[in-house]
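User: Structure please.
Assistant: Input sequence and predicted structure:
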Amino acid sequence: MLNTASNAPSENPRTLERAIGHQIRVMRRERDLSVADLGAAAGISPGMISKMENGQISPSLASINAVASALNVPITALFSAFEESRDCSYVKNGQGVVIERRGTKVGHIYELLGAGLRGEIVLEPYLITLEEDAEPYTGFRHSGVEFIYMLSGEVSYRHADQDYHLRPGDAMLFDPQALHGPAKLIKTPMTYLSIIAYPRV
């Protein structure tokens, strides 16, 4: 695995072991077998079976094959839980879901650039365009974390009681539970990338 500048933890090296262990436990219980029963049928000690089920060891192929035979399933059945799909959201230029704001936020156009990924964190990437008839609005407030990257135009962007003059190439990362939004539209039309992340409930 290539390292990046991200501090995100790497994938747990025990993921495969846990997936195999989970399958063994599920199939053992489906057959109403105790750990001792399965161990006796596979010729493996109950303690070893328990460690396999809890993903605490990396079992040999011989041990996995013995357990699969005792459960009367092909060895590939024990790997099925690990063969999960990895989602990818692909949006072609100009084909994001467009949300046009009304009322006090008229002229604020949001294009959602991706959605639908699974996991513990929801990520919402938007391309935001403020047209010439757009008006300032500093009343946005929501949970999570927000990142803004200015692409074109200029804006004075307010977060809490502080204003930031954003030009192309400028970025902000902030707590969006404080009131925020464009306070002064200096050069329109303007576009910026907004990425919002929050825990999935």
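The two ends are 30 Å apart (CA to CA).
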